[in-house]
Design brief:
The protein is α/β, with parallel strands linked by helices. The protein has 10 helices and 9 strands. Bound molecules: acetyl coenzyme *A.
Length: 263
Amino acid sequence: MGDAQYAAGLPDDAALAEAGLRLDVDGAVATVTLDRPERRNAMTFATWRALAAIGRSLPADVRVVVLRGEGPSFSAGIDLSMFSGGGGFPAGEDDLDAFIADLQEGFTWLRRPEFVTVAAVHGHAIGAGFQLALGCDIRVVADDVKFCMKEPALGLVPDLTGTKPLVEIVGVNRALELCLTARTVGAEEAARLGLAEITAPAGELDKAVADLVASLLAVNAGAAVATKRLLLEAPGNDLAAQCAAERREQAGRLREMFGGLPG
Ligand code: ACO
C-alpha cells in the first residue's frame, strides 16, 4: 500500500482507499471505516497517517466521529508486513522518535473536544486495533468482540497511545495482566472492566451506534465541547484545579448563552 503525504484538506477517496480507509461525512457525523476486510482491516503506517490527515481536516460542523470496521473484524492490528525486512524503521534515535510520534497523531486527534469519538467494535480488535478503540471516547461493542493487546507477545510495547486510556479505565494492575498475558477479553468482561460503555448483539451494533449518535447530537453542541474538555482534564487535576476548570468552562457557557454573566 502507498504512503501518500497529505496536503491540507481531507484525503480524497483514492488516497483513503490506498490507506485502507473509507470516509463518509454526513452533516454533523463523520464515519471512518477500516476497509480492508480481506486483511481483517490490518493497518499500515499509511492508515495512521491518513487518520491523522482526517483529524486535521474534518469540517468544523462535525460533532461525532464513528470508527468502524468492514467485514468480520474491527481490526487485526498492525499489518504484519510492516515488520518484514526489519520494517524500514529509521535508525537514529531522534528520527525513530519522530517516526513513531507521527504515527501516534493518527490516534491523538480522537481526544480533541470538538467532537465525540465512538468506536463501533466487533470481532477481533488486536494490538493497534485495540489501541484505536481505546483512543475513542466511547466504545460500543458487539457481543462477538475480542480485545487483545498482543504487542508484548510479539516483543513490542503498545505505543499507539493506548496505554494511558487502558490504565485509566482498568487500573495499572489489570492493564499489566491484560498486556503481559496478551489474552483475549470478550464482551461481557469488557463491559465489566469499563472497556465497553455499550454492548449489543452482533447484528444490532449499527443500530446501537445510531441510537447513541442521535442522543449525542441532541445535546447542546457548545456544552458538549466544553464538557468533554472539562472531563478530559479531570484525571490530571487535583480538586481545586478541577473546580477552577469547572468555573472557567461555565463562565464560557454563560457568556455564550446569555451574552454576559448573570447577576
Ligand atoms: N497483518 C497482515 N495480514 C493479516 C493480519 C495482519 N495483522 N491479520 C490477518 N491478516 C490476513 C491473513 O494473513 C489472511 O490472509 P490470507 O487470506 O492471504 O491468508 C487474511 O488476513 C485473513 O486472516 P485469517 O487469519 O484467515 O482470518 P481469521 O478470521 O481466521 O483470523 C485474526 C483473524 C484472529 C485477526 C488472525 O488473522 C490474526 O491473528 N491476525 C494477526 C493478528 C496480529 O498479530 N496483529 C498484530 C498485533 S500487534 C500490533 O498491532 C502493533
